[in-house]
Amino acid sequence: SQKIEQNSEALNIQEGKTATLTCNYTNYSPAYLQWYRQDPGRGPVFLLLIRENEKEKRKERLKVTFDTTLKQSLFHITASQPADSATYLCAPDTGGFKTIFGAGTRLFVKA
Amino acid sequence: KAGVTQTPRYLIKTRGQQVTLSCSPISGHRSVSWYQQTPGQGLQFLFEYFSETQRNKGNFPGRFSGRQFSNSRSEMNVSTLELGDSALYLCASSDEETQYFGPGTRLLVL
After folding, report:
1. Which residue, among A39, A57, A41, has the nearest Cα to A49 in the 3D structure?
2. Which of B46, B51, B55, B108 could serve as B34's disulfide partner, Cβ 3.0–4.6 Å?
3. A42 vs B: CB within 8 A
4. DSSP of B16-74
5. How far apart are CA A1 and CA B48, in angstroms?
């Protein structure tokens, strides 16, 4: 069955450093992959979408890579700030009129 | 454009009761999805509607149902509530790729 794996443990980093989050998927070939941010008690917010023919995508301090051979996406936040502390979810396209999200990685950025 | 709205925001029910939650999507979006989120399970897909038709559903019992109206507004219903149904219920409207979430309805079943 289709499976999405994200770092299950929280990621703690110091302000100013680069945070790198991993999303691995198995048993399917998504045409695109999305990353969302979720703050406690709120709905996820869309951040970036990367397509299978794109190796890398950037938006301000965010960078996403998509390796269809490794079946992996990496999400980077450069020059991280305490305000970046949140849970980050990846969602590879399933092609079946449903969006399935990974369990998410909690990021804590310390000042 | 106004975002996705959900009502009510908070709800307390007792076991055995039923509940109906409402979702108004972003204007122009015809796809609406529902998710259940609990601390231990993450975001679990319930079902997706497009132009009043359910196109996909997740692995939830038949007590969970939904519908979509001609104006794309959607409702989900949970009958015979159980304690384990306590969760944050999120609705999202979509432009076919990206999901735009509402603030959610927090349901507590006592």
Report:
1. A57
2. B46
3. yes
4. T--EEEEEEPPTT--EEEEEEEETTTEEEEEEEEETTEEEEE-S--TTEEEEE-TTS-E
5. 20
Contact B100 A36 (CB under 8 A): no
Picking from A38, A97, A101, A106 by the largest number of B CB atoms within 10 A of its own CB, the best residue to mutate is: A97
State whether A98 and B45 contact (CB < 8 Å): yes
Q: How far is B5 from chain A (nearest CA, A)?
A: 11
Token pair, residue B66, equals: 């939904």
Residues of A in contact with B10 (CB under 8 A): none
CA distance B93 to chain A (A): 11
The pLDDT tens digits of the residues spanning A25-55 come to 998 889 999 999 999 989 999 999 999 999 8
Whether the CB of A14 is below 8 Å from some CB of chain B: the reply is: no
- Judging by beta carbons within 10 Å of its beta carbon (0-12, 13-18, 19+), is residue B22 exposed, middle or buried? middle
Listing DSSP states for B6-17 in one string gives EE-SEEEE-TT-
Distance (Å) of CA B74 to CA A51, A95, B14, B26, B110: 29, 22, 24, 12, 26
pLDDT digits (tens, 9 = 90+) for B18-56: 999 999 999 999 999 999 999 877 899 999 999 999 999
Q: Show Cβ contacts of residue B1 under 8 Å, excluding neighbours closer than 6 positions.
A: B26, B27, B28
Mean pLDDT of chain B: 95
The answer to whether A44 faces chain B, any CB pair under 8 Å, is yes
